[in-house]
Design goal:
The protein contains 14 helices and 19 strands. The protein is of the alpha/beta class. The protein has two domains: 8-177, 3-Layer(aba) Sandwich (Rossmann fold), CATH 3.40.50.1950; 188-404, CoaB-like (Rossmann fold, 3-Layer(aba) Sandwich). Strands 12-11-8-13-16-17-18-19 form an eight-stranded mixed beta sheet, with helices on both faces. A five-stranded parallel beta sheet has the order 2-1-3-4-5, sandwiched between helices. Helix 8 (168-177) crosses helix 9. The longest helix is centred in the last third of the chain and has 16 residues, at 389-404. Residues 1-188 are annotated as: Phosphopantothenoylcysteine decarboxylase.
Amino acid sequence: MPGAAGLRVLLGVTGGIAAYKAVFVLRALREAGHRVRVVPTEAALEFVGRPTWEALSGEPVTTSVFDGATGVDHVALGRSADLVVVAPATADLLSRAATGRADDLLTTTLLTVTAPVLLAPAMHTEMWQHPATVANVATLRARGITVLEPDSGRLTGSDTGPGRLPEPEAITAAALALVAPQDLAGRTVVVSAGGTREPLDPVRFLGNRSSGRQGAAIALEAARRGARVTLLAASVDEAARRAAQHPAVDVVDVETTRELADAVDTATAEADVLVMAAAVADFRPATTAARKIKKDGSGPPAVELVENPDILATVARRERARLVVVGFAAETGDRDEVLELGRAKARRKGADLLAVNAVGGGRGFGDVANAVTVIDGAGEVVGEAAGTKDDVARGLWDLVVPRLR
């Protein structure tokens, strides 16, 4: 169904200075596993050239209805699309789309599309607020087309105001939400992401390699599917933070395991699902030095460790009847060894589902593919998900949603 990987996306680009931002929309869609055909206007090619669009999309680029005439491309493109995004959408494009003009490949294609359409406007404030543009936007929205509100900020030149193109991450999130199943609508979801850090002194800490990107993808997919999401971010990297940008995602920053435990208690009070994707430190230093630990010639200091609270097991025992609890288990070793370790952890933790993945050696952490085997509380395999972080997030929610019913 729509929302799965491999969507056929048409990316329309019109002739505005913000056309360069569409390059980042294209990249985000491609990295999420979707096939993207770029359909620029002639004016758009004055800002970003045809070779750029073709190189980044891997697809041919044309502006004319006469190219690809044997395949009737101006009709075939619209019929085959699963999703259409136009960014930037200039005042001219909004006018032509609202009045049904068909004077280039982009507007002709818009007349044949039956898939969801999202337009991301960008223009000067006076143009956005002009009665003609206001009327055109109202007409398009009445027809079921999604027209985003532009951001307010610095525009071309020295003027500032509403009319700035929304950021590429926001455009991509809003577009993919149009084709995501809304099976989490009305639900409240809490996701932890990243890795907790336990301070040794004001400079150093015990931590791990988790970037938070998988947790961010899980949070974003939940928001796309209609949920209200709280993302508990434990030292996530900037890429993860950007990836989780969505109006329905609230980010709460935490650092230590105890801070995360407190945040989980607060956030899950009204939640339907908890997904513990963060890599949580099992131990912390018994004491934290008030000043940076220095070499003094007596050798390295001994660090006494104490056990941290087991957040997943505690919540699973306390809340199992009230919310669906999903844990993650990052393990090292071959597939069979990793799975056995995961089964033992599933029985010990008591979560409804446990996503087990092998990490290390270029797997799991950071900007790399991921693969998880999902098992239930009894250690039985209930499903698998692999591919990009977004692919894994979609697969995981496909397994979680039936348990909410």
